[in-house]
Structures are given as structure tokens and as C-alpha cells.
Amino acid sequence: MKKGSKTIQIGLRLEKELLNKIEKLAESEGIDKMAWIKRALGVFVGDEEDDMTGEAIKDYIHLIIDEDELKRYTGFKEIPKDIQEARKEILKQITKSKEV
Question: Where exactly are the structural domains of the chain?
């Protein structure tokens, strides 16, 4: 990799049927197949990150993971107040159920 380069080259094997579908989709959009693949991967990765962030927030609120894990999964520097309040509400509910 060149010094300062923001991209790397990888090799990828695809089934012919999948490649044919990609080529048709790329052609219908007027772009080359590599541009289509890069965009599709970017969208997919972004969606997966969003899902992971949502799951991490839910797990934090429901006391499954701690603050450090939430920050690691989401990239948060600070935990938003609404998420902190939701976690406190779960803690209150647990405390009340144990008192009964």
C-alpha cells in the first residue's frame, strides 16, 4: 500500500450468477460494476453499523452491557442523556420489583 493511500486493493471471487446480476444492476444505473459494488458494500456496512449501534444502545439500557462496551460499539465519547435516563428508569423498575 502506498504511503498516505486511503484505499487498498482486495481480490474477490463471486459466483457468475451474482456477478451477472451486479452487471445488470450497474448497467441499469449507468455506472460500472466496481462502482456499484463499492456503493453496495458501503450501504450494507452502514446499515450493519446502525443495527449494531441500536442493539448496543438497547443492551446498555437493559443492563446487558456497561458504559465502556457501549462506547466501544457505538463510538460515543459521552453517553447521550436520553439513553442514560432510559437506563435509570430500568434500574428503578428493577429496584421497585425487588421491594415488593
Answer: 27-99
